[in-house]
Amino acid sequence: MVVLSKPAIEQCSFIRNCIPTTTTFYTGIPIIDLSKPDSKNLIVKACEDFGFFKVINHGVPRQFITNLESEAIKFFSLPLSEKEKAGPPTPMGYGNKSIGPNGDIGWVEYLLLTTNPDSCSHKFLSVLGENPEMFRSALNDYILAVKEMTCEVLELMADGLKIPTSNVFSKLLKDEKSDSVFRLNHYPPCPDFQALEDSNMVGFGEHTDPQIISVLRSNNASGLQISLRNGNWISVPPDQDSFFFLVGDSLQVMTNGRFQSVRHRVLTNSLKSRVSMIYFGGPPLSEKITPLPALMKGETSLYKEFTWLEYKTSAYNTKLADNRLGHFERI
Ligand code: GA4
């Protein structure tokens, strides 16, 4: 019997994995142009079909984005011992490989901050790199502008859903007690692929976000994948000039399942360093997360009643890949 062997290069996983593989990018991601009048209906359709969309003509000044990106790069280039002064992430602060409190790991380092400038997580800013003031001002400019754009999108979403009060979602992010979070991620390039392969390590493992909405911007390095409704994973073409919106678990509940939170992950298959910045829009801790009456039309709620604090507390007791809403479904 003749055994056909693989070409030598394919047998060597280190070499195979270090060769830039040609990622097949998905071309069907909904694009929302905020300057177009039909965007509200397209936002609703994108949330129903994907729980995910890309926003262009967003109005966030490019300078705010590039300033924060360069501050982030400066910070992540510091020696580990310096970065660790801003850690551990319990839950805010600098983290390296370890994600959350329940043993998840990823090929990533990150900074987690609350978005309120007066809140305690800004205590880290005094240890953030060589010029903490510059970092602080870049963060504040970026977060303010992205929050404003996010609220505009959430108001269009409410209009598209024909909810009479168009600020039902945005008021939760605008509330001074809003429990929103900001995350800077750095995925280092071409590490020891053999070790990663042996440990099955990805950049950031699959999960859904617990909040209402997540707004992600990355540099031009690939890696982000989302799961389609049929369970297939697709690679999102990177686009450093746009924002990607992800439906979170809380929005799923508020729409009684009409929108579903999107499972996503980040792979480590790039030779380029990936830097992403994500704004997680969350409600105040005391807010009841429940389907909006305007969307119910005689339906009953698919979920038990809970506050954001209860959901968040339960989420921090789960592993990244768990179905966190499962505990809160009515049977
Ligand atoms: C996912 C969304 C945000 O990144 C995050 C994450 C948080 C963390 O990294 O500490 C969690 C994760 C996220 C969900 C379940 C818990 C908490 C890690 C984890 C295992 C900051 C958030 O709010 O929830």
From TrEMBL:
Residues of the Fe2OG dioxygenase domain: 177-283
Highest rank taxon of the organism: Eukaryota
Alphabetical UniProt keywords: Dioxygenase, Iron, Metal-binding, Oxidoreductase
Primary enzyme class: oxidoreductase
Names of required cofactors: Fe cation
GO terms of molecular function: gibberellin 2-beta-dioxygenase activity; metal ion binding
Pathway note: Plant hormone biosynthesis; gibberellin biosynthesis; Hormone biosynthesis
E.C. no: 1.14.11.13
Catalytic activity: gibberellin A1 + 2-oxoglutarate + O2 = gibberellin A8 + succinate + CO2
Family: Belongs to the iron/ascorbate-dependent oxidoreductase family. GA2OX subfamily.
Known function: Catalyzes the 2-beta-hydroxylation of several biologically active gibberellins, leading to the homeostatic regulation of their endogenous level. Catabolism of gibberellins (GAs) plays a central role in plant development. Converts GA9/GA20 to GA51/GA29 and GA4/GA1 to GA34/GA8.
Protein name: gibberellin 2beta-dioxygenase
Organism: Quercus lobata
